[in-house]
Design brief:
With 332 residues, this protein is of the alpha+beta class. It is built from ten helices and twelve strands. It has two domains: 4-160; 171-331, Sandwich (Jelly Rolls). It has helices at 4-17, 32-38, 43-52, 56-67, 73-81, 86-100, 105-110, 117-129, 133-146, 150-160, and strands at residues 183-188, 194-199, 222-224, 240-249, 258-263, 266-267, 269-274, 277-282, 293-296, 306-315, 321-322, 326-331. The strands form three sheets. Strands 3-2-4-10-7-8 form a six-stranded antiparallel β-sheet, with no helix packed on it. Helix 8 (117-129) packs parallel to helix 10. The longest helix has 15 residues, at 86-100. The termini are far apart.
């Protein structure tokens, strides 16, 4: 019922419950946390510690003692799901799923409102292992919307089938270069002429659609301009995923060390393809809405020919879309 990655993550959560517990040779050298831990003798003490203690290490040890006692496992899970410590909540969720499987789904679904990355990562792996595919996809899509952690959202997206991820450090942003980077040429893409489609079901990336394909028929897509939000162009109430497509022709090759695709800002997150190749992502959650970013396209760009740029955008609240200019820059 659970996958290996869920078990590995949960093992890390449980290990963290006792992190920082060092042994001492005498009372004078024993850390305060260890002194309190050594005084835990009964289950009632564990319950009281979870209610009143502020020391994270002590609280996690007390929770662990309740959790791994057969008589109090259910009680520990119940207490842990509502604990103030995200690592305890994450461990409680894992143990609940191990114990009850899909019977625990209503409780697991309720935990989607938990904003912590620790809980989100466990829920992403649980979603990956749910046996009913439709239920799993809906569960993971809700997690993507509600949890703002980039790691959680990436794991959940990959579990759904969004297998696109690439570390792409633009030449001009690579700190290993020990020389000055010079801009040779900047070509700003037109604001008009883009195509747009909302993706309410978050399925545009799946094999059944493949909206990132360069040869996709986008004749039924809506016209849209960049350098402005989609709310101001007829999609005033829409939050969620949407796709932009744009075709542009570049002049003959311009000499330089690298070619970069530069976005002034995308509200909020972006995943980018060029000429059928996945280039990279800007996935910092809602905080990334005004952050410029660059992606290296040296190998994928076509000089003296037509290029097809595709951008998948997610906006969870407020304004959304490619609201700043996009440029192709040659640097050396």
């Amino acid at each position: 019922m659970t996958c290996r990655s869920l078990a590995v993550f949960a093992a890390g959560c449980i290990a963290a419950l006792v992190a920082g517990c060092a042994t001492g040779t005498s009372e004078s050298t024993t850390p305060p946390s260890m002194a309190k831990i050594q005084n835990i003798k009964t289950l009632d003490q564990c319950r009281q510690i979870l209610k009143t203690e502020n020391d994270e290490v002590v609280r996690r040890v007390a929770f662990r003692k309740l959790l791994f006692n057969q008589e109090t496992t259910d009680e520990a899970i119940s207490l842990g799901l509502n604990d103030k410590d995200a690592k305890i909540r994450a461990s409680a969720i894992y143990e609940l799923y191990v114990q009850d499987g899909v019977k625990a789904f209503p409780q697991l679904k309720a935990m989607l409102d938990d904003p912590s990355p620790e809980v989100g990562l466990v829920l992403a792996e649980i979603g990956r292992s749910l046996p009913e595919r439709k239920q799993a996809v809906a569960f993971l899509q809700e997690l993507i919307v509600k949890n703002k952690s980039a790691d959680v959202r990436r794991n959940a997206s990959q579990a759904i089938g969004f297998a696109f991820y690439r570390e792409n450090i633009a030449y001009s942003m690579n700190l290993v270069h020990d020389h000055e980077i010079t801009l040779v040429k900047s070509i700003e893409l037109p604001f008009d002429g883009w195509k747009f489609m909302t993706d309410t079901s978050n399925t545009g990336h799946l094999d059944s659609n493949q909206w990132y394909r360069a040869d996709l028929d986008d004749s039924q897509w809506s016209p849209i301009a960049i350098n402005n939000t989609w709310e101001e162009q007829g999609f005033a109430t829409y939050d969620g995923f949407a796709w932009y497509r744009f075709k542009f022709t570049l002049p003959e090759k311009i000499d330089g060390a690298a070619t970069e695709l530069c976005f002034g800002a995308v509200d909020e997150c972006a995943w980018v393809w060029l000429n059928d190749s996945y280039i990279g992502q800007h996935d910092e959650g809602p905080n990334g809405w005004k952050t410029p970013f660059k992606l290296d396209i040296t190998k994928e760009v076509k000089w003296g020919a037509e290029n097809v740029l595709v951008v998948r955008v997610e906006d969870t609240e407020g304004a959304g879309g490619i609201w700043k200019p996009v440029t192709v820059e040659v640097v050396k």
